[in-house]
């Protein structure tokens, strides 16, 4: 086996590797000798099939396996001999035809390119200074939360038979949805409650019930959103044959001890205390998110080193796919409107570079501090993911148990958050009291930075949470096994946040 380095520029390394025919032939003979005692073929006694016959029958397939294994072995030897830590899988290019190599007519000669991990010294967490915004729970927030609770517990009472429905009323209906005259799966319901103006159903559905009264029959004409989750319904015009059974008006909820007891609390004071604790917990989580944003900015400013091209391209590909999907759906950031594709690609490539850089920095700090994700932490993450798909929990859990790559996707954010917490413990963190609105300003996603672009480096986008899709009622989020779409509207997708 001959390994020759042909390129070593920055993080990009290339090697030419040659394994002669004679070595491949020796490996094939050794493989045949290894399996010969177990080979059973018609006309031969078990274990007595001649090596030459095995070679004629299975030599080509066995040589294919040998070539693949030899390439992996050779690439690993090249990396080990040169003390290289690869940034991803190497790329191979065969110099000779694969068929000729397998047929024993040519040497195994191939070119290997690999990007290596950069070497750098991470910033000392203890030398970082971070401001952490905090906010106290105000009386106004408490009262607003109580009001929202009351609205969520709102009851309705029948209006007179001739009373027409107005915004805020609940209309009890039976309906059947049709597209091109054909009823579709999930498009029918009986005794469905539709609150006019609640925004739970696809655009135009609720509004067309304004003015109806008990006993009315009406055909509601609507168009499913273009980005509706059920692709068979997306962008389609539909008609819902509707029968109005009852029109109800809302009854104001009195916020008192009795109301609190209906919610499982001892009295109104206990309910207020529970609300305060909940809001304090939310504020604390948001305060930590904002501190994380500033920490990421500080780390980005402290580091400047070459990045593996393949990692940047992979990250850019993920980001750009999301950008293209957002553009197609009409969800484009105001700051991106009117820009050329080349300009956008340039900006989002900078974002990809930032994300890769920060990922490497956090990984280096975490490894230096011996931070890892415990088995029980990963198990909880798998369980949480499985719980998102009622009825499929077992299948989802088994999927993650058998798929190392899927496990890595769950492990990565857990590791990142543990490293961030570790850095925040060591860094000089100064709490700064702000208003509730200031605390939650520009809150596109956990860990995202404000929309405002910095003078130098553009903020990297936070990974978006998958938007819930609701037809007449909101459709469930996508699951591994497809589900039938009902009639609720799809929630609007947010443009990609920039971190």
Give a verbal description of the structure.
The protein has 499 residues and is α+β, with helices and mostly antiparallel strands. It is 41% helix and 18% strand. The strands form 3 sheets. Strands 6, 7, 8, 9 and 10 form a 5-stranded antiparallel beta sheet that branches. The protein has a 4-stranded antiparallel beta sheet with strand order 1-2-4-3. α1 crosses α2 and α4 crosses α6. The two termini are 47 Å apart. The C terminus is likely disordered.
Helix content: 40-55%
β-strand amount: 15-25%
Number of E-type strands: 11
Question: Structural class, from helix and strand content?
Answer: alpha+beta
Which assembly state applies to the chains in this document?
A: single chain
How would you state the average pLDDT, rounded?
Answer: 86
Largest sheet geometry? 5 strands, antiparallel
- Parts with pLDDT < 50 across at least 5 consecutive residues: 443-486, 489-498
- Compute the number of helices: 12
* Radius of gyration based on Cα positions: 31 Å
What is the string of helix and strand elements? EEHHEHEEHEEEEEHHHHHHHEH
Q: Outline, from the CA principal axes?
A: extended
Chart the SSEs and their pairings.
Elements (H helix, E strand, L loop, with lengths): L1 E8 L2 E8 L1 H15 L15 H31 L9 E4 L3 H5 L5 E8 L13 E6 L4 H14 L2 E4 L11 E10 L2 E14 L21 E7 L13 E15 L5 H6 L5 H35 L6 H21 L11 H28 L6 H13 L5 H10 L1 H23 L1 E6 L2 H5 L59
Parallel strand pairs: 5-11
Antiparallel strand pairs: 1-2, 2-4, 3-4, 6-10, 7-8, 7-10, 9-10
Helix pairs in contact: 1-2, 4-6, 7-8, 8-11, 9-10, 9-11, 10-11
